[in-house]
Amino acid sequence: MSTVAPTAGRLVRFSSRGLHRRNWVVVVCITVLVLAVVVALVGSMIAPYDPNLLNLSNAYVGPTGGHLLGFDPAGRDLLSRLLAGARTTILGPVAVVAISVGVGTGVAVAAAWLGGWFDSGISAVVDVLFAFPGILLAVLAAAVFGPSLKSAVIALSIAYTPYVARILRGAALRERAQQYVAALEVQGLTGFAICLRHLVPNVFPLIVAQATILFGYAMVDLAAISFLGLGVQTPQPDWGVMVSEGETGVLQGYPAESLAAGLAIMVVVIAVNLLGERLVDNAQRSSH
Amino acid sequence: MARRLVMLVVTLLVSSFVIFSALYVAPGNPIAVLSGGRALPPSSIAVLEKRYHLNDPFLVRYVDWVKGAVHGDFGVSITLHEDVSSLISARIGTTLELVAFASILILLFGIGLGLLGALRPGPLDTGVIVITAISAALPAFVAAVVLQTVFAVNLGWFPATGNGTGFADQVRHLTLPAFALAVGSLALVARVTRASVREEAGKEHVQTAISRGIPYGMVVRRHVLRNAAIPITTVAGITIASLIAIDTVVETAFSLNGLGSYLVASASNKDFAVVQGISLVLVTIFVVINTIVDILYAVLDPRVKLGSRAQ
Question: What is the pTM of this model?
Fold first, then answer.
């Protein structure tokens, strides 16, 4: 049919189709993330084999019956290690995001609300903390407390807090200047109550968007620290550890383990990034 | 300018204090490391304590350490019995070459891809969007594995590991690491370039320039790029500074003998003097690059007052 549709109708159809496509991407991203979280929670239970069962005669053997992805350099079932390794790879960054977003939001809102020397002090600390890239802080933490997932999570949480604090301080300052805040103050509400019940809920879309973006960074950084041998320790399966364990195989032409773990990281990070960008767009649109 | 430099010094002092005190409070006894776990007579312990200043108060040791660091003396590695500064100077070249190589790739390909996407709408632009979306999510250590598999093991174009000797051989050895280091930042720079060039190209002064009959290349260079340069400089500066951290991962993945891989090894061995020295050097490079970027704003955009960062 080549009849020309009325302009208005075409416009509506075009925009609704565009909306449809955007939603489709969001649905895929959310599906990937829900799957990742489910695997993180029950992965070691649904793994078909013991992820730490060594059998050197199976080293580097490719996919065979019952072993969908084949074996790693130590002859362990690759699929089982991927499933079991999701736990630290996914839940570690969740902890980093929870700590840094929680502390960062609290500090930023307090600084924006109180102003004065408290605000200047916080801003100065934030500026100085920017001098420490997350991975360097994690290496320092590993040297002091010994390499472990815990010290890596704490170090990254410290490194990410200033990013959250800087962005949310700006948002909280804009919110503080709104008239409804003054109206609530006149009504005699305490600053704490206004922040908790009105200000923070109003910047919540921004908080969620920042948390999503940070999750992607935290996952890559934590996996990198485990790759360096300063986070999750072998033989415990973790996607970052697996990329590094597979390194010997890579040089001998058997990159399966490193690539499988790397691909798993990338799929989750791409899903998180696409979702995060969408959330940031929405948060910015609703605040203007 | 003066304000920026004061900030630089303050930041460095605070960072050095954090680095020093973190490792000072670390559990573990340096005497035990020195003796290899054997029991020593009290007289030898006293000698060692005197030699490594183990009994001085904390602040005295910190001030001594900073004074030494300013003069290029970072103390002695307890495990290797070698000067930390000579351990650092033997490796800093590799790290700086790698970061410089990666920075060139980021500027060249990042701005190039961004311009391509911005000025050539259609399939080329879509290609740029897809490539940058994937490479932005490609962690450096995964990029390292992919590059080693494709270009070293399968095609054999570049060596998979090691430093190499002589200039041409070193460049060949550093090519894959530099790409692995650059790939994420490159995507970021390309996306910001594309967005800001797009925005600038749609503005009225550009339309005016085109209608005045100014050649296309000159419009792009003088009217579009000049104005789009500020966000591009911001993101390029931040990403190049962040290479200092990712460098640890890339050097380890490619078994390069640089500061990053040595820092990781020393952290595992609890060689504190080396960890302190290298951390301080890397943080200094990071802070100095950030300061240079801040100063560049004022050069690019006379409206920006030094000391206030352009948004």
Answer: 0.83
